[in-house]
Amino acid sequence: MVGQSFGIWLSRCKVIYYTFFSWMYGFVGSCTNLAMVNSSWTQSHIEKMWKIPKLTKKVYPPCDTSGLQELPLGRSNKIPTFLSVAQFRPEKAHTLQLEAFSIALGKLEADSPRPKLQFVGSCRNKEDEDRLQKLKDKAIELRVEKDVEFYQNLMYKNLVRLLGGAIAGIHSMIDEHFGISVVEYIAAGAIPIGPRMDIVLEEDGHQTGFLASDANEYADAILQLLRMPERERLEMAEAARKRRLILKIGGKVKDWRE
């Protein structure tokens, strides 16, 4: 009983602390002369907290994708490959991707080429390594372990090789400030599948990717890509690559694991 009362009291203290901290954060931010943010999501968050919309400017981070843009857009139809690049952290929602892939395989026509899902990421600590093992166990539980590959702490040159062979890149983190992996998908010619973001927008009236929010929507996007004629996929990949925010922005490439 005493422990329960202490827990309630501690929770209330945390609420008071975070409420005060949020107020201080907003007050201090409102005093700034100019705020630069790196995405539409961050811009919306800062404008809500700091209440200085006219002084908040969006500036995308530098992303050197010149090498990725040299990769050919054509892909092998023998084994269609989907790529997921992100640290093995809980907010990256890897399990959602795995479940969506399993759903898609269950709906795929028997005479269609069987696709492959490749997870690429790094582990920061023992918790991340345990999370990766649970993901491997989940693949076995879903009976898709033969169709899924895991790459831990892969060198960048090997990541480029995988990007060059993928027909699509999957991203499932919600409220991410700026998804560097999605930029690399698009530059490499891999169609992005994920939440609405700055870079998954139309280009000259052409679709550049697929938006999804749950396992069924991700599965539908995977199936659409697998059933899409190669000509249409190439047109979408080319339109995505034209997105101006990923072209010749300069600066050094960020660590892809972030």
From TrEMBL:
Keyword line: Endoplasmic reticulum, Glycosyltransferase, Membrane, Transferase, Transmembrane, Transmembrane helix
Record-listed E.C. numbers: 2.4.1.131
Cellular component GO terms held in the UniProt record: endoplasmic reticulum membrane
Leading EC class: transferase
Electron transport listed as a keyword: no
Domain ALG11 mannosyltransferase N-terminal, chain residue ranges per copy: 9-50
UniProt-listed Pfam families: ALG11_N (PF15924), Glycos_transf_1 (PF00534)
Catalytically driven reaction(s): an alpha-D-Man-(1->3)-[alpha-D-Man-(1->6)]-beta-D-Man-(1->4)-beta-D-GlcNAc-(1->4)-alpha-D-GlcNAc-diphospho-di-trans,poly-cis-dolichol + 2 GDP-alpha-D-mannose = an alpha-D-Man-(1->2)-alpha-D-Man-(1->2)-alpha-D-Man-(1->3)-[alpha-D-Man-(1->6)]-beta-D-Man-(1->4)-beta-D-GlcNAc-(1->4)-alpha-D-GlcNAc-diphospho-di-trans,poly-cis-dolichol + 2 GDP + 2 H(+)
GO BP, sorted A to Z: protein N-linked glycosylation
Sequence intervals crossing the membrane: 20-41
Compartments in which it is found: Endoplasmic reticulum membrane
Name of the featured protein: GDP-Man:Man(3)GlcNAc(2)-PP-Dol alpha-1,2-mannosyltransferase
